[in-house]
Structures are given as structure tokens and as C-alpha cells.
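Hi R.,

As promised on Friday, here is the backbone we talked about, encoded as C-alpha cells. Could you run it through your design pipeline when you get a chance and send me back a sequence?
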């Protein structure tokens, strides 16, 4: 087989493309699902950064670490997750954080 024949044969094999129509509804549904997932991720990131900005007491962290034998990071996260800007007392925050860690 000559080089020209091989090139012709290769073209005939690679040019065989089957065209398919896309279902417009499925495409729209997939794009909507992606945008919802992205929006949820942005909300989670905003909530995490807001929680990280909240101040926690070192004594509260030490108490949770000593009582539940968790890391400082876990204790701080639990406290930050339950803090409502200036609305709860320290004991209410501690109680909510302990419940979150114990109950789940």
C-alpha cells in the first residue's frame, strides 16, 4: 500500500462522525443543577468565613477540649457555629456547642 493509499484510507476512517442532536431540556436541566450547586458552594463559603470572624473564648475552647477530648480546631468551630452575634450568653453558647458536638 502506498503512502497516498494509506492517507486516503485514514481519511475515510477518521471522517466518519455521527452527528447527534442534544436534548434541549436535558442541557437546561444540567446547567441549572450546576448553577444551583455553585450558588450553594458560595453560600457555604460565606457562612464559613462569617463563622471564622466570630470571637470565641479561650477558656470555653479549653473546657470543651478537656471535657470531650477533641482538638482545639473542632472546639473552636463548634463554638463559632453556634454564636449568634451578641444575642446569647456565654453559657448558652457553651451549651449549644456541647450539644452540637455530643449529639451531632
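Update: got your reply. Pasting your designed sequence below so it's all in one thread:
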Amino acid at each position: 500500500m502506498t503512502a497516498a493509499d494509506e492517507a486516503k484510507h485514514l481519511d475515510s476512517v477518521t471522517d466518519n462522525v455521527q452527528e447527534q442532536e442534544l436534548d434541549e431540556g436535558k442541557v437546561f436541566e444540567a446547567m441549572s443543577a450546576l448553577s444551583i450547586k455553585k450558588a450553594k458552594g458560595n453560600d457555604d463559603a460565606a457562612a464559613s468565613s462569617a463563622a471564622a470572624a466570630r470571637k470565641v473564648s479561650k477558656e470555653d475552647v479549653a473546657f470543651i477540649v478537656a471535657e470531650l477530648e477533641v482538638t482545639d480546631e473542632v472546639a473552636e468551630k463548634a463554638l463559632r457555629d453556634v454564636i449568634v452575634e451578641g444575642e446569647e450568653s456565654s453559657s448558652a453558647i457553651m451549651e449549644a456547642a456541647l450539644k452540637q458536638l455530643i449529639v451531632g
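One thing I noticed while checking it: Residues 24-53 form one domain.

Thanks again,
M.
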